[in-house]
Amino acid sequence: EVQLVESGGGLVQPGGSLRLSCAASGFTFSSYEMNWVRQAPGKGLEWVSYISSSGSTIYYADSVKGRFTISRDNAKNSLYLQMNSLRAEDTAVYYCARVDTAMAGNDYWGQGTLVTVSS
Amino acid sequence: QSVLTQPPSASGTPGQRVTISCSGSSSNIGSNYVYWYQQLPGTAPKLLIYRNNQRPSGVPDRFSGSKSGTSASLAISGLRSEDEADYYCAAWDDSLSGPLYVFGTGTKVTVL
User: With contact defined as beta carbons under 8 Å apart, do B104 and B2 qualify?
Assistant: First the structure.
């Protein structure tokens, strides 16, 4: 069974840092592209970042470029999001999502981890 | 801010057909595939339609997607109470600053 489990969320002050993790199981993690997607409370979905299966290709949303860093460790079946210089508008539930090779859509999602940026 | 525009709400009675529109531009819908996601209350999104009009295994054929030019639409026929959810379109955008994956503004479907 495919599982994606996010962790690392919590309360952080503006300007602070946080590192999110996404533990993958039930599939060959190294073969799949991955995305981070977030959802502010009561708001819609916002794509954050993409990483290719090898980690060689990375994209970011303009809203996080220069502040967030996506990475992966295929040996540990894990995806990461390093978030620096956090702002109140970064408050959201952060989901990791697998990109299906054939469909090219996000076919499996984690349950999400809440990040709250507040003083 | 989202570059894909959807109506904020749509509704219908059980058995009716509901259609949700998604308006974009030449840099996203006009040149890339469209995806649709369903998000039931309190849960993670679920892939509903991929590559404009394809359904993943397990998605009922009551759901159908289409695309024309820079717009796309999702149709739900034979509306059921369990279809009450938020629906989002999505597509890659070939922006000048690099590829961006953009979601629509979202549409809340209510079953009356």
Answer: yes
Sequence-distant contacts of A76-79: CB under 8 A, at least 24 apart: A77/A23, A77/A24, A77/A25, A77/A29, A78/A21, A78/A22, A78/A23, A78/A24, A78/A29, A79/A21, A79/A22, A79/A24, A79/A34, A79/A36, A79/A51
Q: Is the pLDDT of residue B63 over 80?
A: yes
CA distances to A8, A117, B2, B28 from B93, in Å: 30, 29, 11, 4
Inter-chain contacts counted by CB atoms under 8 A, chains A and B: 67
- Residue A113's closest chain B neighbor by CA? B44
Asked if A15 and A86 count as a contact pair (C-beta separation under 8 A), the reply is yes
Q: Do A104 and B33 touch (CB under 8 A)?
A: yes
- pLDDT tens digit sequence for A54-95: 999 999 999 999 999 999 999 999 999 999 999 999 999 999
Name the 3-class secondary structure at B83: helix
Distance, in Å, from the CA atom of A94 to the CA atom of A47, rounded to the nearest integer, reads 10
pLDDT tens digits, one per residue of A94-107:
999 999 887 788 98
User: How many Cβ atoms sit within 10 Å of the Cβ of residue A89?
Assistant: 10
